[in-house]
């Protein structure tokens, strides 16, 4: 067994937290093929392994727009209550098999009404699937809790309507709100009134920002979106400057060689300082960030490597970071695999990986008592 495989085997049963995972990007390949066949939707392949490989290859383009094209296939089969319920149930079962004990799954109901479902019926179907999945996991002596994050699509003009939808279902599975879709050109300020409504009703929000656009998008998410977490958020690194002071003489040069870290100067810009000092959680998804070009936007290279992802820099500087999958099928990942990958890239021990779980659970939209109980459970298991 390889070192990576051995680490994944060690990590898989440990309790984990997933805060940034899209339902429509996380179907089982076999289920997608079956449901597509029922409605006559043409897929690139009818073989589950080959289809998963095609999706992963397409995702690995370095372009967010191309990455999102895959979702035309997944949303096509998620237009009925029966299919939504099945996809949600299997999603929960797959999370549990990956060791996830708490998750917040995001999806956009407005993308699932093409066959006549109302927005409310779509939310109810997904909730029924989640509850069915939780029961299935419990029947196998497992435990998992999953909340819905209702997303509004940035490019559409349905923000107010989707906020009211989320508020109607806050007592039946919905734990928060999100905006998704193309970031550049569709700022959170477009939804300012909707975010104000959320704040008045005290339903929390996370905002996709700092993935396909830069620091000003993050600022906008914080100011107009009242974001309590940032979806990805890695381009906050653009507001951080790191430089090394030049030694003034030979004695300084000798000392510098002995203790180079003392000569490194880190300056946080106002947005980065706000995010770091207020411990606003960054829902990073390392593999997805490489695939969509979010990391490359920071390195200036055509393709960034995981070692070049700003995750470790942000962690070392005290930012509140977490590890997520974004889209399990589309990106071809699991949370266990993502944790193993960052451990290998940045030489993390189990203690650091446990930190990311605690960061996530404390940034979750659960109540205080529930967060405390889950934190204790996670720490006990990881230690």
TrEMBL record:
Question: What does this protein need as cofactor?
Answer: Zn(2+)
Q: Which UniProt keywords apply?
A: Hydrolase, Metal-binding, Zinc
Q: Where is this region: Disordered?
A: 238-258
Q: Name one GO molecular function term.
A: adenosine deaminase activity
GO (cellular component) term, any one: cytosol
Q: Which GO terms describe its biological process?
A: adenosine catabolic process; hypoxanthine salvage; inosine biosynthetic process
Q: Where is the composition biased (Acidic residues)?
A: 246-258
Annotated InterPro entries: A_deaminase_dom (IPR001365), Ado/ade_deaminase (IPR006330), Metal_Hydrolase (IPR032466)
Q: Where is the Adenosine deaminase domain?
A: 15-379
**What EC number(s) is this enzyme filed under?**
3.5.4.4
What is the residue range of the signal peptide feature? Answer: none
- PANTHER family membership: ADENOSINE DEAMINASE (PTHR11409:SF43)
Q: Family, per the entry?
A: Belongs to the metallo-dependent hydrolases superfamily. Adenosine and AMP deaminases family.
* Protein name, entry field: adenosine deaminase
What species is this protein from?
Garicola koreensis
